[in-house]
TrEMBL record:
One of its GO terms (biological process) is cytoskeletal rearrangement involved in phagocytosis, engulfment. This is HAVR1 protein. Keywords: Disulfide bond, Glycoprotein, Immunoglobulin domain, Membrane, Signal, Transmembrane, Transmembrane helix. The gene is Havcr1. Residues 18-121 form the Ig-like domain. One of its GO terms (cellular component) is membrane. Residues 122-167 are annotated as: Disordered. GO terms for molecular function: phosphatidylserine binding. Its main location: membrane. Residues 122-132, 150-167 have a biased composition (Polar residues). It is found in: Membrane. The chain crosses the membrane at residues 195-216. Belongs to the immunoglobulin superfamily. TIM family. It is a single-pass type I membrane protein.
Length: 217
C-alpha cells in the first residue's frame, strides 16, 4: 500500500511470526554513496527517532540488535532492513532515512510493519462412510463380512409333502397313484437288466409248455 504525504512515502509490510521480514528501501547512488538510518517511529525532521541501525553507505556503523540487519548490497543503494525471526512486538512504524546533501533533500520512507501469527490449519481429516441396505429377503453383504446361505442337497432332493389334508377324495387318489408309479418305476430305472431276465424266463416257460402240448397231442 502506497500513500504520499507532504514529506514522505508510506508503505505497509506484512510478515509472519518466526519468519524473516524484509522492509524495502533503496536510493540512487549516481550522486554518490551516502549514510542512512532506520528508526522505530515516523521520520522526524532530522535523523531517526529511536534508531535501530546506521550505515555510512559502506558498512554498518551502529546496530541496536543482531535481529536488525542490512543484507542488501549497500554499494548499489540497497539499504532494505531485514528483521530476523520476527515477533509480534516488531509490529509498528519504521523510518528509512537516506541522508542526501542539501537542504531538505533527505529521502524519507515510513513503513508500517504488521507481524501476524502463522496460520495453522485445524480442519480434521474428512471421513466418508458408506452403508448399503439390502432389501427384505435379499442377501446381506458388508465391506468386511459376507454371509451367504446355500440350500443343502438333501433339502433340494427331499420330496414335497402337502401341508394341508386333501380337500377332495379324488385328489388323494391322484397323489397315491403318483406315489405308486414313482415307487414302481424307480427300481426299473435303477436295474433295467432284471426286466430282461424276467422276459427271457417267461418266453422259455411258454416255449416248454407249447412243446409239452404238442408232445401230448
Amino acid at each position: 500500500i502506497l500513500s504520499t504525504g507532504s514529506t514522505a512515502l508510506e508503505l505497509v509490510v506484512i510478515g509472519e511470526v518466526g519468519q524473516d521480514v524484509t522492509v524495502p528501501c533503496h536510493y540512487s547512488v549516481r550522486n554518490g554513496i551516502t549514510s542512512m538510518c532506520w528508526g522505530r517511529d515516523r521520520c522526524p525532521n532530522s535523523k531517526c527517532s529511536r534508531p535501530i541501525i546506521w550505515t555510512d553507505g559502506w558498512k554498518v556503523t551502529e546496530q541496536h540488535s543482531s535481529r536488525y540487519q542490512l543484507k542488501g548490497d549497500l554499494r548499489s543503494g540497497d539499504v532494505s532492513l531485514t528483521i530476523v525471526d520476527a515477533r509480534e512486538e516488531d509490529t509498528g512504524t519504521y523510518c528509512c532515512r537516506v541522508e542526501i546533501p542539501g537542504l531538505f533533500n533527505d529521502q524519507l520512507i515510513n513503513h508500517k510493519v504488521v507481524v501476524q501469527k502463522a496460520r495453522i490449519s485445524t480442519a480434521s481429516p474428512h471421513t466418508h462412510t458408506s452403508e448399503q441396505t439390502s432389501a427384505p429377503g435379499s442377501t446381506s453383504e458388508s465391506s468386511s463380512t459376507v454371509t451367504r446361505t446355500w440350500p443343502s442337497d438333501s433339502a433340494s432332493e427331499a420330496p414335497h409333502t402337502a401341508s394341508t389334508p386333501c380337500s377332495d377324495p379324488s385328489d388323494c387318489l391322484d397323489v397315491a397313484a403318483n406315489l405308486q408309479n414313482t415307487s414302481v418305476s424307480l427300481p426299473s430305472q435303477q436295474h433295467p437288466e432284471h426286466g430282461l431276465y424276467i422276459g427271457i424266463g417267461s418266453c422259455t416257460a411258454l416255449l416248454l409248455i407249447l412243446i409239452l402240448a404238442l408232445f401230448l397231442t
